[in-house]
Amino acid sequence: FIVYEGLKRYHCDAEAAAFALKSLRMFEQNWVKNNAICENYNMFSGAGGDVWNSDTGYGWGALLAGLALQELIDVEPWSHCLRVGTLSQQDWGVRAYRVGKDVYRVRTAYDGLRVERNGAVWLTSSSPIVVRCEEFGAAPLRLKLHADRPGVLRVHGLQAGARIQILDGAARAANAADAQGVATVNYDVIP
């Protein structure tokens, strides 16, 4: 858990995604096979509870699945950002995830990211991306992007003419929202 948090804190998003996905797979393997959340996992096989003194009802093991949730959506206390998305090309998602008063649904795959907030589309992208939204609710909407291939990010639900600000990265353009309340950002590879 601490390693994963450190990877995210230093914006090692590709490594964090791989770590979270491997953790989820190890958790799922043991949950499906033994219906157990294990305290210890074999470092070679990933099998949980394979030693005599391992507790198979141990709560710390649930953090493995929790990493996958945090990979898709999380509040980063060190940056004061809402973080959504992943660089993983895995097709996965989470629904009914509450952050404050809002409820989110996040879906990501090879062809991009889709985030709904309170039942309405909020963000869509054409490739995997990590979006950090700084000072959520402030105007203009301030975003930090991280992507490993070019794409298009659309921010929905804005007032017509509202602007979004890209704080870092190699975005090619940040436009004001159109008449339908959608702002479009074309981005390159953003380390």
What's the gist of this structure?
With 191 residues, this protein is an alpha+beta fold. Helix content is 21%, strand content 35%.
Outline the structure in words.
The protein has 191 residues and is α+β, with helices and mostly antiparallel strands. It contains three helices and eleven strands; from the N terminus they run αααβββββββββββ. It has helices at residues 2-9, 13-34, 63-72; strands spanning 73-76, 81-86, 92-99, 102-109, 112-117, 120-125, 129-134, 141-147, 151-155, 164-168, 183-187. The strands form two sheets. Strands 3-4-5-6-9-11 form a six-stranded antiparallel sheet, with no helix packed on it. It has a five-stranded mixed sheet with strand order 1-2-7-8-10. α2 (13-34) packs across α3. The two termini are 23 Å apart. The relative contact order is 0.11. The model has no long low-confidence stretch (mean pLDDT 87).
